[in-house]
Amino acid sequence: MAEVESRRDGAILWITLNRPEVLNALNGAAHAALAAALEEARDPAVRAVVLTGAGRGFCVGQDLQEFRAGAGDVADRLREQYNRHVLAIRALEKPVLAVVNGPAAGAGLSLALACDVRIASDAASLVPAFVGIGLVPDSGGTWSARRLLGAARAFEWLTTGRRLTAAEALQWGLVSEVVPAAELDERAAEVAQLFAAMPTRAVWETKRLLDLAESTPFDRQLDAEAWTQAELVRTPDFTEGVAAFLEKREAQFTGAPAEQVHPVRLVVHDDLRRWRLTALLRWLLALPHLLLASTWLYLALPVAIVNWVIVLARGRAPDGLHAWTARAVRYWTHVQAYTWLVADPFPGFRGWYGTYPVDLEIGPPREQARWKTLLRLVLAIPAYALATVLTTVLEIVALIAWFIALALGRVPRGMRDLMAYCLRYNAQTYAYLLLLTDRYPTLASGSGFQFEEG
Ligand code: LHQ
What we know:
Elements: E1 4-9, E2 12-17, H1 28-40, E3 48-53, H2 74-91, E4 96-100, E5 103-105, H3 107-114, E6 117-121, E7 125-127, H4 141-149, H5 151-160, E8 164-165, H6 166-172, E9 177-179, H7 184-196, H8 200-213, H9 218-232, H10 236-246, E10 264-268, H11 276-280, H12 282-314, H13 319-339, E11 358-362, H14 370-374, H15 376-408, H16 413-433, E12 449-451
Parallel strand pairs: 2-3, 3-4, 4-6, 5-7, 6-9, 10-12
Antiparallel strand pairs: 1-2, 7-8, 10-11
Helix pairs in contact: 1-2, 2-3, 3-4, 4-5, 8-9, 12-13, 13-16, 15-16
This protein binds ligand LHQ.
């Protein structure tokens, strides 16, 4: 019989650890099977995952029988097995419920704590166990316990290794409910059903944001929430949720993802008016900005090389490098908009978002596909060639717009929009080249644009 069984029930994937004779202690085969089950859970058709144990135990962590001949390279074992599972659980874009049917001990406890929801039977117990064999809690045990309990209670519990009953775990807030053993499966199915019918993207983003909050300053977290919300309003579940509310009916969510928009967006709230005097002297006035913007962009090149190595290794740009490069591209956009009469006011020198009527919204760093990172320079060639053509278009249109601005004190909307279109494509090309995103620049006029009259 398989060490781990996985079974589908509609949109729910049940993963059952299946070594009941040893309370589902994990050996090599069980690890491989659990990794495969968690991989299966990534299927978008799965909208909730249940992790439980066969027999009278949930999971008691490492099969200590495997240690008879020595523990071997424990760090490697943790990295390749346990850490992989808990990271997979945290990265699953859907809720994971631990249905704790019996003892959860050692890394088995850490597995339960890494899940998003815990329901326990009255026969369950939570046992840190590690200290009993002279070890620290691993597989994320310290992180989860600290987060769920606070440092004082987590320390006391983890260092005494006290076996918590289900009732105590409920009191401590470690499990969300305790049900009689005989009713556990039925109740678990009910709760899983409830989660599987939720707007899955919103549930996932809540999970992601709560994890992010562990290491993020308040202002960055606010920004991440705003970005996420902007993405979620483009999901069919948001449309359905609002419609259902207004029609006073139950919403039917599907969990479908948001319509994809480009993470680099040009936001225009310009009133088309141009001051004739500054329009006349525009290129002269723009000179200091042009010098600074090109220096900044040149500096961004070596920074991008460092970033390239990091993104290749980690799959994601560090927050600091991303923010700095984003400002360079945004500043360049402000300056270009000023120079070519796409906007009128004299820009600031620092590239902050929200400081110019032709602005560039750049999403936070996200996972980037490694092959796209590796080949970025080559992949960017067609976009760069097109951006060069669009720059020429921009300059020609700007020259005509300049004469019109001098005569009428305003630029025609069509010209302004065409110039903004060129600017947006160019900004997306720089963002792509400098590793702000792995999304290719787009010619689609609807994506990555926002016009607000002002
Ligand atoms: C077991 C186990 C077990 C094998 C019960 N292995 N057979 C990973 C890798 C690298 C480095 C270090 O860290 C780790 C992570 C870890 O997980 S380390 C921590 C490993 N786990 C433990 O130390 C827990 C040990 N187990 C217990 O303390 C008790 O079994 C608890 C308190 C969980 C449950 O007690 P009871 O309900 O009284 O059950 P039991 O002790 O009678 O166990 C039932 C059977 O399961 C028994 O076998 P037997 O043949 O006598 O019926 C146990 O030997 C077996 N079993 N845990 N980890």
